[in-house]
Write a structure and sequence with these properties.
By secondary structure, this protein is an alpha+beta fold. The protein contains 8 helices and 26 strands. The protein folds into 3 domains: about 170 residues, Nuclear Transport Factor 2, Chain: A (Roll), CATH 3.10.450; about 110 residues, Nuclear Transport Factor 2, Chain: A (Roll), CATH 3.10.450; about 120 residues, Distorted Sandwich (Glucose Permease (Domain IIA)).
Length: about 450
């Protein structure tokens, strides 16, 4: 049985909150009973907890004396004391429907069904998001036989549109729609990195989606754990749509961002751009993609234990070219494909042990030796994505301990993976794309100068 139904049955004389309601709320906001179920009298003064549901005689008199809202269609009968109408905001929880909420408020099923039918002509009732707040205006029952009457209900399933249901004098329900203007705004946040980039940007109000975009865009150049030093700064320009009354209509997107690393030693600046035949992503000021053809290291957690070049081989016992880089890592550490490409070798390969070789664009290929295991599905002629797990660190073949021996070949010859210039592994805009990019950079630079601070939504965006 719904809590309000209980209250109604007791003739509004209940001053203690319904235990069911208290339990339900305590799990969410222990300090405030009324958080999901706030009742307000017509005057708009918030009342503590459920007290307003139990008007004392004096409160009832006050309410009668107060002017009745224009939306209240009930005629005022001089002989009869008019019960106050109460407005309440209800947050939809998992499994809630409008009919169920109205039932909890004591509205009889037939009336609730009529209200829902009227709303359903405008709102997709099955798509109401959890956490959506609806406002309901009810005329409470004025004696024990009477039942509460739904006077009005408003719902805003999306920021742009609000639907208002109202009961007319005949008891029929009609729905009005209010549409809000939407404006796209440029907003900027900057600050010193205090601890982590994520925490500092969040503290500056950068919403989650643009923050994630920014981190991903910098991830080919910056190791967020090791490269950030005291005094480093971030600066970001986002574009986001807002309604005229201050609700965000989208998650926002990054147009430009800048990050310093090493205590200001390095400075990375990125612009959002979509080449004609490519995906929209980020480019530095020279028009080079932030995406590198190859990852800097094919392991997330590792240290370099042996570099490219001539060395005395610990197992073979003579000096020869070490044709790759060794990364020491615990056995079983996932090995990532340094770049997208197709697998050309996968299996045992003499002293290299379990070995995978991938061919990439631009005459490049990479090789991964001494694996304990090759990942399932990694065979010859299979295409792999950049960062895909292709195997696991081991010590198979001629090896003194668990490590990854990593090779980079350019046109069939081994080259030092660590000395290959960063920019040579990046796609670079050219031709018409570069012309368009240059003018886009000027536009974004101008927008940055005129941008306001990042706004916080009136309602928390979860
Ligand atoms: Zn090696």
């Amino acid at each position: 049985m719904g809590c309000l139904a209980i209250v109604a049955a007791l003739g509004w004389a209940v001053s203690r909150p319904d235990p069911e309601l208290r339990t339900a709320d305590a799990s969410r906001v222990p300090s405030r009973l009324a958080s999901d179920f706030d009742f307000y009298p017509e005057s708009g003064t918030p009342m503590p907890e459920m007290m307003v549901l139990a008007p004392t005689d004096s409160l009832a008199e006050t309410s009668v004396a107060a002017p009745v809202a224009a939306s209240d269609p009930a005629p005022i009968d001089a002989d009869q004391v008019q019960p106050p109408s109460v407005e309440t905001s209800v947050r939809l929880k998992n499994g809630d429907t409008i009919a169920r909420v109205l039932g909890r408020l004591g509205v009889v099923a037939k009336e609730a069904a009529e209200a829902v039918a009227a709303l359903a002509k405008h709102v997709r009732m099955e798509r109401l998001p959890i956490g959506q707040t609806i406002t309901v205006k009810i005329r409470p029952a004025d004696d024990e036989e009477d039942v509460p009457v739904l006077l009005a209900l408003s719902i805003r399933p999306e920021p742009r549109r609000k639907f208002m249901l109202e009961r007319d004098e005949d008891g029929d329900y009609a729905v009005e729609v209010e549409t809000f203007e939407v404006e796209s705004k440029f907003q900027r946040a900057a600050g010193e990195v205090d601890g982590s980039v994520i925490a500092s940007a969040e503290a500056a109000g950068v919403p989650h989606a643009p923050l994630a975009e920014m981190l991903r865009a910098f991830s080919w150049d910056v190791n967020f754990q090791h490269d950030i030093k005291p005094g480093d700064r971030f600066d970001v320009l986002i574009e986001r749509g807002w309604t005229s009354d201050g609700l965000p209509v989208d998650a926002g997107r990054v147009l430009w961002a800048e990050l310093t690393t090493g205590g200001g030693a390095e400075n990375y600046s990125i612009y959002r751009f979509k080449p004609r035949n490519g995906e929209e992503f980020f480019y530095n000021g020279k028009g080079e993609s932030v995406v590198k053809a190859l990852l800097r290291t094919p392991l997330n957690m590792s240290r370099i234990s042996s570099r490219f070049g001539l060395r005395h081989h610990p197992v073979l016992g003579f000096t020869r070219l070490h044709a790759g880089v060794d990364f020491a890592a615990p056995p079983g550490t996932p090995i990532l494909a340094a770049g997208a490409g197709s697998v050309v070798e996968a299996g045992p390969n003499g002293g290299y042990g379990r070995w995978v070789k991938i061919r990439h664009d631009g005459g490049l290929s990479t090789g991964y030796a001494h694996m304990s295991r090759i990942a399932a599905g990694v065979h010859r002629r299979v295409h792999v994505r950049q960062g895909q797990v292709i195997g696991f660190v081991g010590s198979t073949g001629l090896s003194t301990g668990p490590h990854l021996h990593f090779e980079l070949h350019r046109n069939g010859r081994p080259v030092d993976p660590l000395s290959v210039a960063r920019t040579s592994l990046r796609a670079r805009l050219g031709g018409q794309d570069l012309v368009r990019f240059t003018s886009r950079v000027s536009e974004i630079d101008r927008a940055r100068e005129s941008a306001g601070p990042i706004e916080r939504p009136h309602v928390e965006d979860d």
